[in-house]
Each structure stands twice: as structure tokens, then as C-alpha cells.
Amino acid sequence: MHFDLEDGHSVPEIVQMLRHLPTESTPPIHWKEFKRRQLLKRARARAAQRRQFALVAAVAVVMIGAVAVWRHLPPVQDPSAPRLPVATLPMAHRPIVPIAWDEAALRSVASERWLATQPAEPVIVRVGTRAAVTNLEDRIAWADDTLSSMRAKGGEADRARALQFERDRLVNSLAQVRYAETLAADLP
To answer: Does 59 reside within a domain?
Structure first.
């Protein structure tokens, strides 16, 4: 509806319509509710900021832990340096010597029995050894799956034997890492 303001007849109509408007309208929300919402918004922003700080702190702790594990890794030895007898070296630093198939299988059975007596998750978990354990467990599971499918298909006896030897070697490595974990857990 358009009123012609130049025309004198429409001005009184506009004035009359303005007079019939309510004098005061109710606000959409009251002042207390407005303040409550503002405080809630600020509290959420502070909580989000605290979560970001906690995330940064967690990343820093993980990095410090990784550096600490890295510093405790054995140093790379110079090939020209004199070598200690193998019997005096810790188990983790001993050279890998190929062993007979049957001996690896026997050691694997003994390792599996020992692993079965260990708890699934140690009390003290260290990042480096936990990653190694998880990696070894995944590789053993892959070897088990592959061996199962090879046995179901039949044939490829040489490949299955090599894969079984690799699985036995992985189980022995897992037992060594878990043993190192238990020794490290006893340290103060």
C-alpha cells in the first residue's frame, strides 16, 4: 500500500495508523537470558581453547617420548671397531644367525607357550616397544591368514614352508620383544 505524501489526504491516515501501533513491543529474549547465552558462548569458546591446548600438550609429550626412545636405541657401530663376543651381547644386539627349520619351529612352539602365559597388555606401555609388538602381531596374523588360504587351496609346499619359517621367526621375535617389555617394566 503506497501513500502519496504530496497529497494532504493521506497524511492523517498515516498518523492514525501510527497511533494504533502498540507503544512497546516485548523483546525476543529478556536481558538475563541474553547474558546467560553470552556467558555460555564464552564458556564453550574457553573449553574449545583448553581442548586445543591439551592436544598440543599431548603431541608434545608423544614427541618427547619418541625422542627418549630414539635416544635409547643402540648406536650404529663402526664396522672397523672391535667386536665383543656374541655371548656377552644383550639378546637384542646379537646378530641374526640362520637356524635349521626344525629348530625354529621348536623355538616358536616354546615362544608361543611363553607368550600364552603373559598378559595381553603389559601394565607399563612404552611407545617404541608397543609399536614393535603391534607390528609383529599384525605380521603374524597376516602369515596365519596366508598359510590358511594356501592350505585350503593346496599345492605350493615350498612357499608354505618358507612362510611357516617366517611365521616362526616372527613369533620368536615377538617373544623377545615382550620379554624385553617385562624386563623394562621391572625397572624403577
So the answer is: yes
Do the Cβ atoms of 115 and 174 come closer than 8 Å?
Answer: yes
pTM value?
0.41
Range of the domain at 168: 86-186
Question: Among residues 90, 122, 111, 123, which one has the least CA distance to residue 172?
Answer: 111
Domain for residue 157, yes or no?
A: yes
For residues 113 and 30, state if they share a domain: no
The per-residue pLDDT for range 149-159, each reduced to its tens digit, is 888 887 777 88
- Please list, in sequence order, all residues whose beta carbon lies within 8 angstroms of the beta carbon of residue 101, skipping any fewer than 6 positions away: 161, 165
Same-domain check for residues 90 and 44: no
Give dist(CA 157, CA 142) in Å, integer. 18
**How large is the average pLDDT for residues 58-77?**
81
3: pLDDT strictly greater than 50: yes
